[in-house]
Amino acid sequence: xxxxxxxxxxxxxxxxxxxxxxxxxxxxxxxxxxYILDENVVGEYLDxxxxxxxxxxxxxxxxxxxxIFIVTGTGKYFKxxxxxxxxxxxxxxxxxxxxxxxxxxxxxxxxxxxxxxPAHLMSHIERLKVNPENRIIMHCHPDYTLAMTQVHxxxxxxxxxxxxxxxxxxxVVFPDxxxxxxxxxxxxxxIGRATAEKxxxxxxxxxxxxxxxxxxxxxxxxxGLIETVEKAAKQYMLTAHLPKANAITDDNLRDLAKAxxxxxxxxxxx
Length: 270
Description:
Elements: H1 8-22, E1 32-37, H2 39-42, E2 53-56, E3 68-72, H3 78-81, H4 85-88, E4 89-94, E5 100-106, H5 117-130, E6 136-140, H6 143-151, H7 156-164, H8 169-173, E7 179-181, H9 189-198, E8 204-207, E9 211-216, H10 219-239, H11 250-259
Parallel strand pairs: 7-8
Antiparallel strand pairs: 1-3, 1-6, 2-5, 3-4, 4-5, 6-9, 8-9
């Protein structure tokens, strides 16, 4: 059996959680990540027949039965993951009943996965239908994105168009636009279902006055989506109160979409 602490997927989680904390996106115990792992790869590092304990998921995820995830822990700080991954992360497998997670590694202090795991599982289910290569669901609280939701109308078309207009790369990175939810109580299945519904169309969903959810095939894609939204939101917050001498027009965006052969939300332009 290989050393689990040398597993690339574990190192990825250690690296990305540390980076997100340093960026200020995951203060205290804010934010969570779930990452679908390949069973054959995990089997090189863990005895998949050794279930440490079972944990109720709070959601019937039969569609994900047998899937293995590495998930950040509830109440855990991202800044601590790289120092003690076995306490702050866990590797789980969705059991046959769909409502139980089998702990294969981690949460060594008796902890459990993030309270938002049901929301993650719901989003994984929907994103896998859109793209079977989807592996990551990432939630965090980036500063300028949150600030933008305080002053900008919480409308998908309008927020997407505003962010597309902040810098040339925006429409190239997220041509499918951004879903937006109104403020909702977090950590329950209601917001999870609402997020999953948006994930049928979007890889990004903003939670007004709370944060953002991103989905992607790997860490780089998912982090890059959120990173680009946050950069565009920063440009907006730095300039929204100033007179504009230059702007990216709808025709400019159409030219970009043509140049990059983008399948974009044409209905988000006038």
